[in-house]
Amino acid sequence: MSPSPKQVLTELLDQHEEIRGIIEHCERMADELDAGRIEPQVLLSEVARLRVVFEVHNRFEERLLRPILRDIDAFGPVRVDKMVEDHVGEHRAMHEGLENPVTAELRSTLAKLRQHLATEERYFLSSKVLREDIVVVEGGG
Description:
mainly alpha, 4 helices, elongated, disordered C terminus
């Protein structure tokens, strides 16, 4: 049995919180690196962990969220097209940015990733969108 929209929403929001926690940790470690208190490899290791968690999240999101968004209401196909269009470019840019060891560039990518999560929550991951009931648009037939 497929998970319900509410279950998917809960899991994705939990994953977003995990990602935000890693982002904050990376930012603190970048500060430590800039201050000369840690070696670059320590930060790079945490950034590598962020890349893995983000990639797992993206696969989960695309596998479970796409069919729910497509079928949830009359705007589903448009919402899915928008999600896919945004995700492909954004995810590629995030991965490239997370490979850059320069802390200024890393901080910029982390800020973009944080904004990406907020945008997803606003447009796709809300209880207004991921509902248990079916929305019917009258006058459609």
